[in-house]
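hey so i finally got around to running the thing on that chain from the lab meeting. sorry it took forever, my laptop kept dying and i had to restart like 3 times. anyway pasting the input first so we r on the same page abt which one it is
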Amino acid sequence: MPGTRTNGWAKPGAINGYSSAALTAAQYLTEYIVGFNGRIGAVKVNGRTAGTGAGNTVMELLKNGTTMYSTAANRPTLLATSTGEFANTNPDVRSFLAGDVIALQCASISSTGHAAVAYTVVLEAS
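ok and heres what got predicted. didnt touch it at all, straight out
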């Protein structure tokens, strides 16, 4: 029998994911069960060690297994040989409900993905 959802107090916060090793495609940095209704306030990704190859490292934000970026080109992206902050934009789908599972994932890499990658998603209560 499936569990029931309880409503938590509206407490804004952040979901943080990190990988010290080189990222791989489809790698999850973390999954988080949200305890309140709200929306995504900000998305920030930063890579300290460059990857290799001629492509990009692209990150993904999933809600219950479905992308929150309807426009794939808006996902956080950084040129494989660069370091620093990814091109960060808020997702097209920003709302979530208590009990939703938010996952921070690496969608794709070039030859070798970035390492020492920090991924933060700021949550706002509604």
